Amino acid sequence: MTGTATGTAQGDAPLLDVRDLRVDYDVAGAAGWRRRALTVVKGISFTIAPGETYGLVGESGSGKSTTGRAILRLADVSGGTILVDGQDVATLGRRTPLAYRRDVQAVYQDPAASLNPRHRAGRALTETLARHGLGDRDERRRRAAEAFEQVGLTTEHLTRYPSQMSGGQLQRVAIARALVLGPRLVVCDEAVSALDLSTQAQILSLLTDLQSASGVSYLFITHDLGVVRHVAHRVGVLRGGELVEQGETRQVLDHPRHEYTRSLLAASPASHPEGREERRAERAARRAVTARAATAGATTAQEAA
Amino acid sequence: MGKLVAYRLLFAVPQLLVISILVFSLTYLVPGSPAAAMLGTSATPEAIAHVEAQLGLDRPPLERFVEWFGALLTGDLGTSFRAGMPVTDLLAQRLPATLSVVVGGIVVALVLGVGAGVFTGTRPGTLADRLVTGGTVLGLAIPEFWLGLLLTTVFAVQLGWVPIVAWTPLTADPLAWLRGLVLPSLALGVTGGAIIARQTRAAMVTSMSAPYADTLTAAGVPRRTQIARYGVKNALVPVLASTGVTFAILIGVSFVVEKVFALPGLGSLMLTSVIGQDFPVVQGVVLVTATLVIVVNLVIDICYGLINPQARPQ
Amino acid sequence: MSNAVILDPADRSPAGAQARGVAQAWHRLRRQPSTLFAVVVVAVLVVVAVAAPLLAPYAPEATDFDAPLSGPTADHPLGTADLGQDLLSQLIYGARTALVVAGGSVLVAMLIGVPIGLVLGYKGGWYDRIGSRGLDIADALPGLMVGFVVIAILGRGMAVLVLAIGLVFCMNFARMTRAITLTERKKLYVESAHVSGLRERQIVFGQVLPNLAGPLAVQAAVFLGSAIKVEAALSFLGLGLGDDQPSWGGMLGVAAEHQADQPLMAVAPGIAILLTVLAFNLLGDGINDALSGRRTTGRRRTALLGRQRPPASPTLAEVRAAASAADGTADVAAVDAPPVATAPVGPGRAAADGDADDDRSDAAVLDVRDATIVADRPDGSTVTLVHGVSLRVRRGEILGLLGESGSGKSMLAKAVLGLLPPGVRLTGGSIRLNGTELAGCSERELRAVRGTGLGVVLQNPQANLSPVHTVGRQLVDVLRAHHPLSRRDARARAAELLDLVGVNDVQRRLDQYPYQFSGGMAQRVAIAIALAGEPDLLILDEATSALDVTTQSQVLDLVLDLRDRLGMAIVNITHDLGVAAETCDRVAVLYRGELVEVADVVDLFDRPQQPYTAALLAAHPTADADIDTHDTHHDSHHDSHHDAEVTA
To answer: Is the CATH number 3.40.50.300 carried by domain A49-77+98-304?
Structure first.
């Protein structure tokens, strides 16, 4: 059930096909009047097959969340295409078709913030169903209750306020909301990063269980290589808005080809203290090399001021 | 730093322009003819036509505005309809008293407010804090002009410590000027002090419980140094903002308080002009006070930039 | 990111868990005497205003030429005005005027201000940029001035007065609504609503507006008070309602004219205004407290108790279920084990380990014994955050303090530092630093130890440094707290320290502000500050949790280098098993305030003695390749150990 699951339908036409995606942000200049464009995603391409989990890893500022927001049509796309089922959604107008909202859903990092603090948990689901014209009042309640059971909550949780639930329970509500419409792709943006270790494990296994039951695809955005190894079939490594490497998760993490992936792996804490002195020496050597390269005039990924 | 001053000055210009447009358009907001409103119901049509011509209401608004604004730039605000004097002269007569009492009030407000705020903010939850904070709640609620009445009743009428009509121009006798300002400044400063005290207290509590306070405490920086150097400077950022707001409030309130102390300020001028619908004077008073507030906020913003490095343009 | 949970407001208190919304707000309201006072005053006021014709002994405008300015008499308890009008009756009818004008004007202010604020805040972009400039410009007009101008244009009268005062406050409503809408709009629940396909209208009115209701209610209450003050001021000046309409401000206007002969005339109307404004202000404070669940006195205790919410943190059974789920083994035979919290450490390794032995002569830098930390609850009861934990750290050793949120690991560190928040105290045990007892030390005694004895680096890199002081200034202040150095020497030493922690270009960096530093660099500065007093013990409280992995590894390697060079003892508090594995010599595992076990780091990862530790290890997803071998490794161990413990 971990990342190396073989159920990937490699031969099928991709569900999501992102080509040369570019996203610019309009940032405020001094005193708020002058604006300039900042390119956050610099032309990346990847595909996700039906039933597949694609991990997008990167550090802060790498553009990974922006990529997710562009796919969710929350960030304006400056270039490239986002094909869902062969149809380009990057060039749609201001309005997003409801059908697209049904197909593409999201689960966010902070479960407490992604639910309205003044609404009971069940309302997030019934309201969504109502908007999509699904069922009458009773039918919607029934479907919400069903979705809650699917994610391991009880009907009692439907009437609770977010402040009365734990982080793990809230994330289950968020997952139930994402899945109640029967989407084909769910963008999970750091969906387990704010959770305690034990809760994190539960949510990860819930997500994989739901995937094998419904065949939904995940775009799993995270900074945590451990989580990626755990859930993703394939992985892309983002740095500064560019995909430096992508491929089968195990292939990329065990035999990284790009230097950045290697340094990322070297920096990630290991699961066991064994061999840590060697790893420390290796990191020191790696830094010495980049420092030398920097003094030699090359531009490197040194930590900027 | 120079950049910040330049930016801020650049923003003040459109602000003043918009205010003057608003002020200019006041006469057009009066239902019916402002001339008729000024002259009352018994006015003859000839008199109304005469006043309308005097106000320029018979000409297109844009033409009239260009002329009015041009005059404004040379310091000419027109002529008071009631007093028959140039508005600029009237304002010049009244401004010193208003400025004196507002500055006095702001000084009282800052001393009381920052003092009480730092005192309570460094000992939150204690009895002393609750007492002083309770006092600020009272200070917020007390009507300034009533406080002024009580103060004059007790100190001027009953005890006779200060004369009832106390205004002396600064140029005539600085000491008498100061003596005359004590009670009005107190009456005016208490509410402002309460506003600033609440802001300061909240800012001090935040600043003293922030992670950097823990970092410095753990590194061995004595508490007194921390309060004086780190607490106060960090707290100053929100306090400055509330001082700007307080200043605007105090100018308005001074118009009321000056009646209690019989001060010859802008307030009584405004009052007679409002009742008499003497629009050129009303326009003049609004322009002058708005300019004062804009200038004070400009200074405050520059101080803000001095304290907070992130507020400076990069 | 575990602080997201910790910083939650106290909405999770058991009392609040039962009912929310109005009922809960009412419950909190009742516990505040000042709010109760406010409610009573407002209620009395409303009754007086409604029943004025029944209560007033005379008509308010009825003159009595036999007794003008009479002063208090049997017929006129408060005396009479200059035409012999009864002041008590005027006071009673004045309540009517005050409430109607204030209520009407706040309504006008909200009707104008709230929609403006909603549009600016929700639309954002150019709407907001231009609209906010407009609000700034409106700021330049003192509120009362707006009132004067409106009256100058439209003349006197009830409708004009309400409009004039309403215009005074509408910009405040607009500004507040804009600010809150702007914050709410960026929140994830609004983004989620977009993703769900909800319409803009549904989002603004269904999602954002309910979150505005509370702050708007607070503001409305406060402005009701202010409006009464403005109404009184305008009436005092003779710009309010007609002279025949009784109002408190008008009464004060008459009183001012007779200040010399009738000084008492000013007392009653003034007190009426004061009490009314006070009541509305207190009501606003009360609503605010009830909504946010916080006291305005700034005590952090209620916020802190949010972390102690037993039903919310996972039970051991859940942890184990999760662990087995992560393992892929469906075997949950061990789930019904007694939770660690109630049946803590058996006679296992933790008790036998050096951390609890009696040899105090050993060169332990830090020696914590039986530390118990409790927090006060608002209702007077207490919660135990840390239960009798014992730990020792030797020179040159790095002890990991590992736990999930709510485990008490940070509280333990704060107790050592003497920085426990108000309402939280150490109630038992001893904390010795180099043999000196710290428990029960005064602030003065603690200061002697801080910096030189111990230093700390906290989680959030930017917040660890004062934003309005240069980095150099902060280092110099710390250095001069310990050594009698001149400014110049202190600066030279500060430069050395920055160099020591791997900051380049130190002379320029010393004059920079924290916001000019990246997270990793800011954390290096925080380490430099902690090291300035050359402490024997360095406490890292989730010091690298907010950093990217690359930066985290750099800072952790720096800590290891510094330990090798300077030889201080280090306590590394973390929730991250990987960080513990990479840096610690020994690891103490905490769960819900209990010490689960302490062991050498290799032993802990190879042979966890306690089921909780084993479950944690199993739940840890890692990036390195050998995960599978380790997992099977653990399984074989933890079950056998677990059985042994249960039977023991």
So the answer is: yes
